[in-house]
Amino acid sequence: MNIAQSSPLYEYWNSEQEDNDENKRLLKLNPDEPASNLFRNEPYKWENLYQSVLRNVINGDESSIKGLMVLLSTISQKEKDIVLNSLEPLLDKHLISKLRNEKYQDIKSSKNFYTALRILLTIFINPYQLELKKEPNHLYEKTGMFFYKFRKMLLLNK
Q1: CA 76 to CA 73: how far, in whole Å?
Q2: Which of 3, 15, 74, 144 has most Cβ atoms within 10 angstroms of its Cβ?
Q3: Helices 139-156, 113-125: crossing angle, 10 deg rounding
Q4: pLDDT by residue for the chain (158 residues), tens digit each?
Q5: Contact 144, 130 (CB under 8 A)
Q6: How far apart are CA 141 and CA 44, in angstroms?
Q7: How many domains is the chain partitioned into structurally?
Q8: For the whole model, what pTM was predicted?
């Protein structure tokens, strides 16, 4: 399984993103988590953050673990378990246990300007080729869709 396939939004990105697909996506939400507004209202941003932060964690960036914990807290416990099970080939057992059992509020934050800047850039350039099938609302969604269509056009011309 790859990083994109481990995402709770994988099926959503591969759907028509119609009302029924949107309702299925929202069933994965943890409504008790304050940060869940990101998952509820901005799936494009959530997915870019998820893939970017998870890549950082896989590459050994311990400062990104808390970010991954926050993102996982926005989905239901059932979905979180599914995601963590799918990540077992990518992450060591100790880290999976930490992600499963610890609360992000108990983890001390460490600020990494370079990582934050790289993630911000990721949201705007859409390197994971997420396709919004509805009209983009935010500037980062519009730039992300521009880069998506630009890459797609370049690949068709090869």
Answers
A1: 7
A2: 144
A3: 60
A4: 799 999 999 999 999 999 999 999 999 999 999 899 999 999 999 999 999 999 999 999 888 898 999 999 999 999 999 999 999 999 999 999 999 987 777 677 767 778 888 889 999 999 999 999 999 999 999 999 999 999 988 877 75
A5: yes
A6: 7
A7: 1
A8: 0.90
Handedness of CA 70, 11, 6, 144 (dihedral sign): negative
Of how many residues is the chain composed?
158
What gap in Å lies between CA 76 and CA 81, rounded to an integer? 9
Residue reference for tokens 């799936």:
43
Q: Which domain holds residue 133?
A: 3-156
Residues 57 and 68 sit within 8 Å (Cβ to Cβ):
yes
Amino acid, res. 108: K
